[in-house]
């Protein structure tokens, strides 16, 4: 058996350490600075979301990884189960990372509100050309930012596909196990909490 559980446990520990470090930093910043209430609220939200993720979903994933490593458990979670759960966690991790990114930017800006990107307001529509001319499309390579957005969106889509595949596989395994049993059990999934 391949130690997938061990590999995912290392990834999980790295994410846990990273988020716990962010939480400690925010708690320190709260103590050392006179911060406006809106920034304190952003800090509490980010720290609370991270702590909730670590104490619930991360713990659940840790247990799944440990079951994968335990050869006496049947049925034992397989690599695709772990990968599907990890992909699902990535969405929450990304969401929390964005909250902390904003706080890090605020700190770098001495806790002053970040200036929104320049928006040049146009009250008048652009002038209409007097003579119609043929529009020649110019091919501009996408900006690096656009590529990274496309890439992260593509990664999210792939993660969702893998998660759905893992759920379908688990459902098929569950159905075949239920069919072979003498009694029928009804499984009601726990309510998902969006972080």
TrEMBL record:
Compositional bias segments (type: Basic residues): 130-142
Pfam families attached to this UniProt entry: GKAP
GO CC annotation terms, alphabetical: glutamatergic synapse; postsynaptic specialization
Residue stretches of biased makeup (Basic and acidic residues): 115-124, 143-161
Molecular functions per Gene Ontology: molecular adaptor activity
Biased composition regions of type Polar residues, renumbered to the chain: 172-181
GO process annotations (BP): signaling
Region (Disordered): 110-183
Entry similarity comment: Belongs to the SAPAP family.
Protein name: Discs, large (Drosophila) homolog-associated protein 1a
Lineage start: Eukaryota, Metazoa, Chordata, Craniata, Vertebrata
